[in-house]
Amino acid sequence: MRKTNVKLVAVLTVVLLMAGVMAGCGGTASNDIKIGVLNEMTGGNATMGTSSANGARMAIKEANAKGGVLGKQITAVVADNKSEPSEAANAMTKLATQDKVVAITGMFASSNAIAASSVAEATKVPLLAVGATNPKVTVDEKTNKVKDYTFRVCFIDPFQGTVGANFVLNSLNLKKAAILVDNSSDYSKGLSTFFEEAFTKGGGVVLSKEAYLQKDQDFKTILTKIKALNPEVLYVPGYYEEVGKIVKQARELGITVPIIGGDGWDSPKLIEIGTAAALNNTYFTNHYSVDNTSPTSQAFVEAYKKEYGLVPDALAVLGYDAANLLIDAIKRANSVEPAKIREALAATKDFAAITGATTLNATHDAEKNAVIIEMKDGKQVFKGAIKP
């Protein structure tokens, strides 16, 4: 975490004291059903959080137009975690204990989702994370037990890291890598570890593993060190703001090798920051591609463009899928009681999501495909899909 843990600890202490009183209080006797939509609306991951929230709101709008759920309309209670773990815990607490939502969806950054999951467990209000891929989101790292009230609609980093490593080894046929990891991010640290494990197991060699922090601006010293090692590929599992600067500065230093990353790259801001030319010969693993030609996918793309005037990115699709899955769980539970919604989420199997048929497994993680995206002249180009 980039801020101290003091605020987060204080928030969680209050939550734990309140948990006995508030457990199961998410239901509502009013004429609507409140669902929390908690995202990175401002801060370093704002484009992703906004996309996720847009997708969720569109799903809820469509559901309401069809009559809502359990005879009631759905109200989205939107909250901002400001791209900070402590703020995620604060906002999650307010949604669960003051706004009295029946369940909460959202969040891309794993650090934010991990903080929010502690509140979900304390208040017993289900959390369905959208794009947070670190294993610690749904499994307690201290006890190694699955968190009862925390789920996610995306794949996890052991799978994503392996997909990235195998793509480098088998499709690009490259064996010597350098890794540049964001040491302030659970997501980046986890994904780099899983990539390295799969890459070395497959016969690759990691020449160097260098670190930076979110909000860093100048990466040329680290990149100069990496360039001297002559790697064949550079793996950068970070978020778009720093990644754009890293790619641009790498190209300025004459590093022409392929640069690979993860789903944290998926933002229009990446091209704005990194430039289209510098991003040529780069690739990243992702949850979805707008090149998906299925009728349901294309219908979603057109509806999203009509609603927001934008082409949806993967986070918009995941936000939409998560909200629809949550609505489906409420229907299957036939109840707005958080405990019954939790049971329905845990039983989710083959849900027809835009990102693909989604089953939530024993660790509350989604089993689904990943895709490889190539950046070419400022556009995302679909390279292929990989099954778990």
Task: Characterise this structure.
This protein has 388 residues and is α/β, with parallel strands linked by helices. It folds into two domains: 33-155 and 293-368, Rossmann fold (3-Layer(aba) Sandwich), CATH 3.40.50; 158-286, Rossmann fold (3-Layer(aba) Sandwich). The chain has 13 helices and 15 strands. It has a seven-stranded mixed β-sheet. Strands 2-1-3-4-5 form a five-stranded parallel β-sheet, with helices on both faces. A hairpin with a 2-residue loop joins strand 11 and strand 12. Helix 2 packs across helix 12 (314-333), helix 3 runs parallel beside helix 4 (110-123) and helix 8 (240-252) runs parallel beside helix 9. The two termini are 30 Å apart. Mean pLDDT is 92; it is low at 1-29. Residues 33-378 form the Leucine-binding protein domain. This is Leucine-specific-binding protein.
Continuous helix count: 13
DSSP strand content: 15-25%
CATH fold title of the largest domain? Rossmann fold
Class of secondary structure makeup: alpha/beta
* Overall number of structural domains: 2
CATH structural class of the largest domain: Alpha Beta
Shape: globular
Number of strands: 15
Determine the CATH superfamily of the largest domain: Response regulator
Largest sheet: 7 strands, mixed
Question: What helical percentage do the residues reach?
Answer: 40-55%
Family: Belongs to the leucine-binding protein family.
Signal peptide: 1-23
GO biological process, one term: amino acid transport
Pfam families: Peripla_BP_6
